[in-house]
Amino acid sequence: MQLQRTRDTAPELAVRRLLHAMGLRYRVDRAPLPKLRRRADIVFGPAKVAVFIDGCFWHGCPEHCRRETQANPAYWSGKIASNRARDADTDSRLVDAGWTPVRIWEHEPAQSAAERIASIVRQRRSS
């Protein structure tokens, strides 16, 4: 698990390239809230939008994470369940603080993900 990248993954880089090409500027791998020890992949500070690009295996994608692992299934099912609970808690805390969390699955096409993010950021900036 230590060898897993925490930032600059291929899906993240693809979305970031498209967002930058759309003229949007952002911070990378930042904690949206100072006292929250969780980091978003992409943060739009003034618009208060935090983007998380979640890996299908690690975050329990309903489309791709349907069967249990062969090696140590008790550990992995608990690990993935705790990751999902932490994701829900993070989203809740961000919403309570006035932020908009955006969750993107790694299998989503980068273009549609970037368009969805850009739409949310522009909407938040104009309101």
Automatic annotation (TrEMBL):
GO biological process, one term: mismatch repair
MF-aspect GO terms: endonuclease activity; hydrolase activity
Keyword Hydrolase belongs to the record: yes
UniProt KW keywords: DNA damage, DNA repair, Endonuclease, Hydrolase, Nuclease
Domain of life: Bacteria
InterPro entries, per database record: DNA_mismatch_endonuc_vsr, Restrct_endonuc-II-like
Protein family per UniProt: Belongs to the Vsr family.
Name of protein: Very short patch repair endonuclease
Source organism (scientific name): Pseudoclavibacter endophyticus
